Amino acid sequence: METVPRELMTIPLYRFKRITTVHITLNPKAIEKPGVLSKILEQISSRNVIILGMFTSASPTEGYVCITIFIDSTNLEESKLNELVSKIGEALTELEGKVKMYTSPVEGVAIDPYSFPTTAMGSRAIILMYHSLRGLISGLSRIGAEMILNIIGNEIGKAAFKDHERIVGKNLEKLIKLFEARFMMSGFGIMKVESIDMETCEFTVKIYYCIECEILEELKRPSGSYFIKGMIEGWFSELIGMDVVAYEEKCISRGDPYCQFKIKPRPTHN
User: Fold this and answer.
1) Out of 101, 131, 178, 226, which could bridge 149 as a Cys pair, Cβ 3.0 to 4.6 Å?
2) What is the pLDDT of residues 10-30, one digit of tens each?
3) Of 94, 95, 114, which Cα lies nearest the Cα of 104?
4) What are the E-state strand segments in the chain?
5) Which domains does the chain show, CATH number per domain?
């Protein structure tokens, strides 16, 4: 699978540029009307203004449609910015368009003060940066408390399953596909559930670019996964209704090309 990075902060750092956020809210019916975006972009392009990034956010059930556009306002006078905002509003009158703008006080950095909280499929979300996770893993492994990572991952996996079940119900194929997609979209790695045996409750999961194991490799601590392992254990435990153990058969921190986990029911001791 070929992929390209997605800049979560919408646009990368642009040194020496003044960046203005143009935030547009519309009547929810806008999502059903073609040509809305072209009306907005026409007002921007006709003034030779460069768009650095944009995103849309819509929730018809909660009654909002938003479009956020980041423009290069380095050479734009304040009066021209105000005129642009006014013209966009006029173009969207029929959709009850409301337009606000905010020019970032930090050069080269886009700041959107109008969008909060971050959500994913209706659930509130946060952004965990690589250096933050690296600090957590480094600190816990330094004091020999990796099991805390496993416990945290396990609880996250259980909560994730319940959320996935809320979205797609009990359909096994859809649950697996959603787990793979959300795992990748969250930045943990690219997951593939390679084998499924519901009779024996055994599964094989392969992960490319596992973020935890990349950190372990960087830290020169090739001990294998605890956090991601816990997440997998929690998710599959909820799926089959019993505790499971994920055995890490391969790991990039040990020189393998990918990480691979074999999931089995937890052994019971009499």
Assistant:
1) 226
2) 666 788 899 999 999 998 888
3) 114
4) 19-26, 51-59, 64-72, 98-103, 119-120, 123-124, 190-197, 202-208, 244-250, 259-265
5) 19-116 (3.30.70.260), 130-265 (3.30.1380.20)
